[in-house]
Amino acid sequence: MILWKTVDIADNERALLFRRNRLVKVLEPGRHRMTRMAGKVRVETHDISNVVFESTKAKFLLHTHAQLLEPHVDHFELSDTQVGLFYRDGHLTDTLAPGAFLAVWKGVEKVRVDIVDISEAFAIDTKLVGMLAQNMKVGKSRSAVAAMHYVEVPDEHTGLLSVNGKLEKLLQPGNYGFWKYNRSVVVKLLDLRLQAIEVSGQEILTKDRVSLRINLSGSYRVTDPETVALKLNDYANFIYRELQLRLREAVGTKTLDALLEDKDSLNAALSDDIRSKLTEYGIEMISIGVKDIILPGDMKQILNQVVEAQKESEANLIKRREETQAMRSLHNTAKMMENNPTLLRLKELEALERVTSRIDRISVYGGLDAVLNDLVRLGPVKAAQ
Fold this sequence. Notes:
By secondary structure, this protein is α+β, with helices and mostly antiparallel strands.
């Protein structure tokens, strides 16, 4: 029967010596010999390089054997309204949840736990937010993910902070952190930039029962984020639905001809109506307009025929007007030549010039006088004697 037990403890180890399942001593680095005659011996070895005293019975052992463990182990315990920030050698490495218990080995590293009361305040200091967010991004601390709600509010945006379902305040651009313990924290981002909206493919009947497909476009901007958050669940869908309804009302009261002749009146009617409605909900409608009015195939063909007939009528009218003007001019010219032989003779010579420019050869009988006087005669021919 072996009466002695030998145990070697490394420099990075501490051991708890149990005799008859009762803690009797903490063994430091070195070789230790223990007799078995006083009862069954058990040695529980711990690696202290991890600093944390990892044992399911750590809290119990510290309470029942404080004199044995206090020279070697330090501990921290939080209330239900406290959060702990665990530092090792000045570096934030972990976050302790409310009600947590932490035991650490002394003499390994410089350890401290900063305690934060979250019973009232839930916003995290800006400098601390940066450190916790960095730990979250690099995966250094999983507990930080569970402890903190982190949000970044970009430029031209605002954040709506709600705690336990109640809107607390608006967040300006920047980064923020809030303790999630004991409360529900939600941050909703609202875009304050100019945004576009399209209402496409709306099948609508006009007053004279013609089916049209209309595409509408507009732009808007959120001016009162708090009102939008309190009164509207989904403001984009709300604007789309209001534009859709206003468009149907405006088109249904006009005939097809009225719509095609004056689309601007439709835009004005929509704009005035929707602007007053959206202002109540903290939204400014910047612009709105009808992009396209698409006719059915048969109606398009009929309108094309109507337009074609109108254009032909206009062309005929212009043609008749020009012919009348030309006849009037000829009549005036004839009157002038009737009373002025010299002008008549000049017109004859002009006609002679045109004739001669189109022929290659002229046979002349009667000399030059016959060419000048008899070849072209605009006046009435006298009967032969």
